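wait is this the right file?? whatever heres the structure
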């Protein structure tokens, strides 16, 4: 067996590597406090599970689903956009069901990049953007995002020739891994940039519902001209504690949606119709789930952020997402710090450079674990020697 050459471009998935480290530490008998992967620990709400129990018994759900998603699912997505964002979308032309947003995001690069084309990507950023670019034969054009610019992409730093050649740009707010949120002015600028340079703006909005302190994330489709140049990826994963269910949607410019649909209909055969029926029930009742989840996450966030700050760390409290992004202490590199922290305390965090070279010097903590474990984390952080942060 000899893997294809393209496989040499891609590392094992970041969390697959982290799982290995975790297994090694566990084998040594260490009790791990896992602040690693962002996978909701809360179960899928009962009313959603009940809807699935019913939907799975419907024999009409047992054959191949329609490629674009069931009409009822696409209508529910349109209702949700109207209710949540005040945005009107056409369920027949502007909406496509995807097998979780990771799948849709991955395939977007195959739908819109020619070999050699640059894809404009935030660095640090969700690792799938870069890997999908490479596998599609494109060239990642990473744009540094940093604390100094509120993790907003500096559009003026993108050279003209890249803006000319690049068919697509990704952005992700609320952001994984930094927890950053985007201002309205910035999102409008991105849309204008997309229209000006004929760049497809791809907004990854997986965390649109995980938010605190009264802050409500926007849809890019709320901004003037977005329908002409933007698509937006959503997922039920983080919103409804449904990461295992694999259902999401991409919404926006109908021509782009059609291209994605043509690609995907040749690749996968859609999402189990029982899951789509269940997703409708979830979307139509999003408010209660979102409010309950965010109350829980907010309490956890405060325990970890306040606990660390009392110990002399300088950690910012995110307005959205379940991630806390922090500078490594003592000027350490990300990998060295995360290994050292795991060895000395059994706390598992994610190295910032796993999200791109500009993530180095940072680490990410996920609050998808109980209040008790977060208190335990703070207790253990107390034993970790820090000379200086920031
Ligand atoms: C979790 C996540 C996704 C993917 O979620 P799915 O479960 O595939 O829907 C996409 N983008 C970001 C930034 C994420 O953190």
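ok assuming it is, sequence goes like this
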């Amino acid at each position: 067996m000899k893997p294809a050459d393209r496989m040499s471009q891609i590392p094992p998935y970041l969390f697959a590597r982290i799982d290995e480290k975790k297994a090694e530490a566990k084998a040594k008998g260490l009790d791990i406090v896992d602040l690693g992967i962002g996978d909701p620990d809360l179960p899928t709400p009962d009313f959603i599970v009940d809807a699935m129990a019913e939907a799975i018994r419907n024999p009409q759900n047992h054959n191949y689903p329609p490629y674009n998603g069931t009409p009822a699912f696409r209508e529910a997505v349109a209702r949700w956009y109207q209710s949540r964002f005040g945005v009107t979308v056409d369920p027949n032309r502007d909406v496509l069901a995807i097998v979780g947003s990771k799948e849709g995001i991955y395939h977007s690069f195959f739908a819109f990049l020619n070999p050699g084309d640059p894809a404009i990507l935030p660095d640090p950023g969700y690792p799938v953007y870069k890997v999908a670019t490479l596998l599609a034969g494109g060239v990642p054009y990473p744009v540094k995002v940093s604390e100094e610019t509120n993790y907003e992409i500096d559009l003026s730093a993108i050279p003209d020739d890249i803006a000319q050649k690049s068919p697509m740009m990704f952005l992700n707010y609320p952001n994984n891994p930094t927890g950053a949120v985007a201002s309205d002015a910035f999102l409008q600028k991105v849309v204008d940039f997309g229209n000006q340079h004929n760049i497809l703006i791809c907004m990854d909005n997986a965390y649109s519902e995980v938010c605190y302190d009264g802050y409500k994330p926007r849809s890019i489709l709320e901004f003037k001209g977005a329908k002409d140049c933007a698509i937006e990826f959503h997922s039920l994963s983080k919103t409804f504690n449904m990461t295992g269910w694999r259902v999401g949607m991409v919404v926006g410019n109908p021509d782009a949606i059609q291209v994605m649909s043509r690609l995907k209909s040749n690749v996968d055969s859609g999402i189990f119709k029982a899951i789509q029926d269940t997703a409708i029930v979830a979307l139509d009742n999003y408010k209660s789930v979102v409010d309950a989840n965010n109350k829980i996450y907010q309490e956890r966030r405060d325990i970890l952020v306040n606990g660390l700050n009392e110990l002399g760390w300088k950690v910012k409290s995110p307005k959205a997402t379940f991630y806390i992004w922090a500078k490594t202490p003592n000027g350490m590199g990300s990998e060295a710090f995360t290994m050292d922290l795991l060895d000395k305390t059994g706390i598992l965090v994610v190295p910032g450079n796993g999200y791109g070279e500009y993530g180095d010097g940072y680490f990410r903590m996920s609050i998808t674990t109980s209040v008790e474990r977060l208190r335990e984390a703070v207790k253990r952080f107390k034993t970790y020697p820090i000379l200086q942060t920031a």
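Residues 100-102, 126, 172, 176, 204, 206, 235, 237-238, 243, 248 surround pyridoxal-5'-phosphate (CB under 6 Å). so i think its the right one actually
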